[in-house]
């Protein structure tokens, strides 16, 4: 132990740790723990310590609690070692200060007691980051000036000489301030000043809750009051504080103002959330001085939670206006204004606002401007500066109004955006921009208006000047353009013609925008000049546009005629005389019409396109119509003239209905399509008859194919395999005239098609557990056993074949979840011909089915003592933590929840009742399915059996209750037989009670047994026949005690004395506790003064009095001794009456009695 103390005193703490790691080697652990805690504490109160470096102090760096109260310390030299100290009590010493710099190393210090010293200043007290309590009461402090203490909660400075609050420290979490019995208490509203200096954390002043009146007074002072108090300003009335604090700060600033300037005002508006907050710094020139150059003011905004804190600069807040943010609510704003004159920066002045208030959520327009030149055609834009006041910025409502001279503004339709393009209607009008701010929450502010000057007209101009009309000889063309620039006045127009020789243009017409083209203009360009002039006569810049060269007039044709027979399928020609072009270049187009007179081209139906050929074969479609030829004359270079028309003298005639050819085309194979082709002549075909036939032989009449009636195409079906197909056509004209029928026979018998699938798709829903089936259309003869294969495609595109899935149906498994499923089919014809394998579209992704319990069964026997479990078949996605509950169901239907384990052990409580299992399937993603319930049969009781039978240690006269365990339904009245035996029998011998021998004695037939003196030294055995309540018996169970019955401790009771004749006394008592051995007897003599004296030699049950016994009382002592020499407690009888002499007693009988007792004991 001495070694450990030396290690601690010499800072050998790594060795000290060995004492705790190996306590059995170094000593008791609890003592070491107490010793180690003692090493963290130093208490030298009242030891007259003069120096911390004294030999008896022993400061170590591990000390946390140091008490040096009531000593003679006057310096803190040596305190630097206490780096872990939490509580330091230096009260009532001889410190005068300021000499507290050594405390800077005590960074963990939480409580510092300096009361009762001679300290005059705390300026040297360093900032201690963890200091929470500071007591400097009963000193000679004149102020509380010291470094800021960030965590100080209690400052006790009572009984000092404090007269001022100047240089009050920054204490952001101070809750209790005590300055009782100081001169400063005479200061009016000292409590209000303290509230201003400390802030909202202050809860008690001078050990009392804050006064409501003082709190209200503190709120009436401006925000800079606390700062001014710290600088030395004396508190005045609240209504004069604003002017007084400004004057106080002015006196401090005035020596640093720019020459020739005075500060008239320095303040900040009441700030509101997201509203413009203006600062006002007014520097005015001294009339006696001239200030040159001009003074420039530079601003910087700061924010902080307390007025006395170190304010943090707000990035980019360098203007005269700042918009407080939501996070600024409840904080102070500070503005520093730096005057700059030329290149010289002067010291800044400042103003502090009150706390930022929350906005009311109703936006307002701070400033509204309209930018853009107010000239027709320009785009102007309205700009709104919005104070959102705590609301979420939204899209405001903008609109434009037009106000003419001396009239009310009217809304401009459609002008509902911030931008607006000035139009002709706005000229000589003033525009009004109206803006209503709206937040996202729907709060609307007051609309604001901004009036513009009057809109001016743009200079006259013209754009998109062009010439309308075909520039062809004889046509009239017109020059047009888009005028802009106020109202149009008498604009000027001029036409000019190109001179082919010089290229110059010569004026040919003025004053009109239209011009008729003449022969002189052919081949030349024309120029149109548009000179815009507004209504006031101002002329703009003219615009010229050139035309294409003027074309010559097109060629013409006359005497157009149609020559030839006007019958169906006949050839006719057209002739005519062409001028201005050539016949070989001219084109003819043929038409038909139902009228014999021409009424324009709109009533004509084209029979051909325009061609150079003049001959035309009359088609069937022209039967019954008049033929019209359109003759268009053209020059070799492609110039066309006006067309001329010729119409036939009569309508086209028709021929009798007939065919000029009939054939069948296509493949004579199953599934193939046969197409009948024919050439009909004889007017307009009516409802001709078509039929298809099947023939076993080419010569038979055949059977009609119903699907082939009335159609020209016939699909070869399976029924046609091995047979011939024919097509019969009966021509019928539209007027009902029927021609001769004709038949065309197929050239070969129909062959079966190659087996293939026309379609293959999967039918069913993409949900796990559902059955998918194949829906296919087979083609190619009689289908045999087609081959199916199912595939699973994962999300990464990997496709695998699903084993065992080879039929036309498939049940989706849990492995398919998240994958796509497809099926392939290889068609097989009945003759084993195989077709191409077809793969269906993928179905999926497969989603999990709803969690479901498809089947639920019990496992185990419904009998007491058995263990029930269950097996559940789950489906519905990846199995999660399915939930199951076991219930016991009574005969009246009441359920009792038993457990949620995987199994249930049936107990006696379950006998005669049902067991219900409720299984709730749960998917891995937490989705629950419908619970599944299963109810068992009635639980039967088990056969009665004794599981355990133990006989505890047996003692004389103490009831023995064996420890037994019964199982098998409700226990009934079993049979119990207790057996006493001198020998320890085995179980087989005990079972046969009748043959156990004479040394076996039955001593009881109840469950409990109380051993008697006869049982002492013998073994007790119990025969137990377990019996159920219904009388059914189980196998008997026997058990024997591990040791013989123990005797009870020897005790004696009812000890008393009997007086016999002739001065003889006999002692008697009742012995208990096994077999009595040689018990001890003693006699005592009680004198008149109450003293009890042992009579030497009196060790028998009888005692003959002697002369010494006269006038005394006798007591008999009985000490029981068991046969095994165990001694019991001595018991004394009650004293006899006074022993008096008996003159008549005879000595012989008494002596004879004593001798007899002596022989009896031996």
UniProtKB/TrEMBL annotation:
Keywords: Leucine-rich repeat, Repeat
Keyword Repeat: yes
Matches recorded under PROSITE patterns: LRR
InterPro entries (UniProt xref): AIR9-like_A9 (IPR056284), Leu-rich_rpt (IPR001611), Leu-rich_rpt_4 (IPR025875), LRR_dom_sf (IPR032675)
AIR9-like A9 domain segment(s): 267-350, 365-450, 461-547, 556-648, 659-745, 759-837, 852-936, 950-1040, 1064-1131
SMART domains (alphabetical): LRR_SD22 (SM00365)
Descriptive protein name: 187-kDa microtubule-associated protein AIR9
Species of provenance: Populus alba x Populus x berolinensis
Organism phylogeny: Eukaryota, Viridiplantae, Streptophyta, Embryophyta, Tracheophyta
């Amino acid at each position: 132990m001495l070694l450990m103390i030396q290690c601690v005193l010499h800072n050998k703490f790594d060795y000290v740790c060995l004492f705790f790691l190996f306590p059995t080697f170094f000593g008791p652990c609890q003592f070491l723990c107490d010793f180690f805690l003692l090493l963290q504490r130093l208490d030298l109160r009242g030891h007259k310590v003069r120096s911390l470096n004294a030999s008896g102090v022993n400061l170590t760096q591990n000390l946390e609690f140091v008490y040096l109260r009531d000593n003679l310390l006057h310096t803190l030299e040596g305190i630097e070692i206490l780096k872990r100290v939490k509580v330091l009590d230096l009260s009532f010493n001889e410190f005068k200060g300021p000499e507290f710099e050594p405390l800077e190393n005590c960074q963990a210090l939480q409580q510092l007691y300096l009361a009762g010293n001679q300290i005059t200043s705390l300026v040297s007290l360093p900032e201690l980051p963890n200091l929470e309590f500071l007591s400097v009461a009963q000193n000679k402090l004149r102020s509380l000036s010291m470094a800021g203490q960030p965590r100080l909660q209690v400052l006790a400075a009572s009984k000092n000489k404090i007269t001022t609050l100047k240089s009050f420290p920054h204490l952001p979490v101070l809750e209790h301030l005590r300055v009782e019995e100081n001169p400063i208490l005479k200061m009016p509203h000292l409590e209000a000043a303290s509230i201003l200096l400390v802030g909202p954390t202050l809860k008690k002043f001078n050990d009392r809750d804050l006064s409501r009146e003082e709190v209200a007074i503190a709120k009436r002072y401006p925000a800079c009051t606390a700062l001014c108090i710290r600088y030395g300003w004396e508190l005045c009335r609240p209504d004069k504080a604003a002017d007084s604090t400004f004057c106080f700060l002015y006196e401090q600033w005035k020596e640093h103002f720019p020459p020739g300037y005075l500060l008239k005002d320095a303040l900040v508006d009441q700030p509101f959330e997201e509203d413009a907050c203006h600062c006002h710094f007014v520097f005015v020139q001294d009339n006696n001085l001239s200030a040159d150059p001009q003074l420039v003011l530079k601003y910087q905004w700061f924010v902080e939670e307390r007025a006395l804190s170190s304010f943090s600069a707000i990035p980019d807040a360098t203007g005269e206006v700042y918009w407080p943010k939501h996070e600024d609510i409840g904080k102070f704003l500070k503005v520093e204004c730096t005057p700059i004159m030329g290149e010289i920066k002067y010291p800044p002045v400042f103003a502090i606002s009150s706390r930022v208030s929350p906005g009311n959520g109703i936006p307002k327009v701070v400033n509204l401007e309209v930018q853009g030149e107010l000239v027709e055609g320009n785009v102007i834009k309205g700009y709104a500066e919005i104070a959102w006041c705590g609301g979420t910025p939204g899209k405001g409502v903008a609109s434009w109004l037009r106000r003419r001279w001396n009239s009310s503004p009217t809304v401009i339709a459609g002008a509902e955006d911030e931008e607006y393009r000035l139009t002709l209607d706005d000229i000589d009008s003033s525009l009004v921009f109206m803006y209503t701010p709206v937040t996202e929450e729907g709060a609307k502010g007051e609309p604001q208006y901004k009036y513009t000057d009057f809109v001016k007209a743009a200079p006259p101009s013209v754009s998109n000047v062009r010439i309308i009309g075909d520039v062809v000889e004889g046509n009239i063309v017109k020059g047009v353009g888009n005028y802009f620039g106020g109202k149009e006045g008498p604009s000027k127009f001029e036409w000019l013609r190109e001179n082919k020789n010089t290229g110059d243009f010569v004026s040919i017409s003025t004053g009109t925008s239209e011009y008729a083209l003449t022969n002189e203009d052919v081949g030349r360009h024309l120029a149109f000049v548009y000179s815009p002039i507004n209504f006031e006569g101002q002329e703009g810049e003219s615009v010229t546009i050139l035309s294409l060269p003027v074309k010559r007039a097109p060629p013409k044709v006359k005497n157009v005629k149609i020559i030839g027979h006007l019958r169906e399928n006949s050839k006719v020609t057209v002739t005519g005389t062409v001028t201005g072009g050539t016949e070989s270049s001219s084109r003819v187009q043929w038409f038909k019409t139902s009228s014999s007179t021409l009424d324009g081209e709109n009533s004509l139906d084209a029979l051909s396109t325009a061609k150079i050929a003049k001959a035309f074969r009359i088609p069937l479609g022209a039967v019954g119509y008049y033929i019209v030829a359109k003759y268009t004359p053209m020059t070799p270079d492609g110039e066309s003239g006006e067309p001329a028309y010729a119409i036939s003298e009569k309508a086209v005639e028709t021929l009798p209905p007939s065919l000029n050819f009939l054939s069948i085309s296509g493949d004579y194979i199953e599934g193939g399509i046969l197409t009948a082709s024919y050439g009909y002549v004889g007017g307009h075909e009516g409802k001709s008859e078509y039929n298809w036939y099947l023939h076993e032989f080419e010569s038979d009449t055949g059977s009609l194919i119903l699907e082939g009636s009335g159609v020209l195409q016939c699909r070869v079906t399976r029924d046609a395999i091995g047979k011939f197909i024919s097509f019969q056509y009966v021509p019928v004209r539209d007027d009902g005239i029927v021609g001769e029928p004709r038949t065309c026979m197929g050239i070969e018998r129909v062959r079966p098609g190659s087996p293939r699938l026309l379609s293959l798709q999967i039918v069913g829903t993409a949900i796990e557990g559902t059955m998918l089936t194949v829906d296919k259309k087979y083609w190619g003869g009689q289908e045999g056993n087609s081959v199916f294969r199912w595939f699973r495609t994962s999300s990464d595109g990997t496709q695998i074949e699903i084993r065992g899935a080879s039929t036309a149906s498939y049940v989706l498994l849990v492995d398919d979840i998240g994958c796509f499923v497809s099926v392939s089919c290889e068609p097989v014809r009945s003759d084993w011909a195989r077709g191409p394998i077809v793969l269906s579209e993928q179905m999926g992704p497969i989603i999990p089915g709803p969690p479901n319990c498809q089947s639920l069964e019990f496992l185990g026997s419904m009998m007491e003592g058995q263990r029930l479990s269950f097996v559940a078949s789950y489906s519905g996605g990846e199995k999660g933590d399915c939930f199951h509950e076991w219930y016991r169901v009574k005969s009246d239907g009441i359920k009792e929840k038993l457990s949620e384990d995987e199994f249930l052990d049936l107990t006696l409580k379950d006998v005669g009742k049902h067991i219900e299992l409720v299984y709730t399937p749960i998917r891995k993603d937490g989705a629950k399915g419908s619970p599944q319930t299963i109810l068992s049969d009635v639980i039967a009781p088990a056969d009665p059996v004794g599981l355990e039978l133990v006989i505890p240690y047996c003692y004389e006269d103490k009831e023995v209750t064996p420890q037994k365990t019964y199982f098998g339904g409700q226990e009934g009245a079993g049979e119990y037989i207790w057996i006493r035996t001198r020998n320890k029998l085995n179980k087989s011998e005990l079972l046969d009670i009748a043959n156990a021998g004479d040394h076996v004695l039955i001593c009881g037939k109840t469950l409990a047994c109380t051993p008697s003196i006869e049982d002492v030294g013998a073994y007790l055995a119990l025969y137990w026949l377990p019996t159920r309540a219904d009388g059914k018996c189980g196998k008997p169970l026997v058990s024997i005690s591990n040791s013989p019955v123990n005797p009870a401790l020897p005790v004696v009771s009812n000890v008393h004395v009997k007086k016999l004749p002739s001065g003889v006394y006999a002692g008697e008592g009742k012995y208990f506790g096994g077999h009595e051995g040689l018990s001890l007897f003693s006699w005592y003599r009680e004198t008149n003064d109450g003293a009890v004296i042992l009579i030497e030699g009196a060790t028998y049950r009888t005692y003959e009095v002697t002369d010494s016994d006269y006038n005394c009382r006798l007591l008999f002592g009985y000490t029981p001794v068991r046969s095994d020499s165990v001694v019991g407690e001595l018991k004394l009888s009650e004293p006899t009456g006074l022993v008096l002499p008996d003159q008549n007693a005879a000595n012989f009988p008494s002596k004879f009695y004593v001798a007899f007792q002596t022989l009896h004991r031996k």
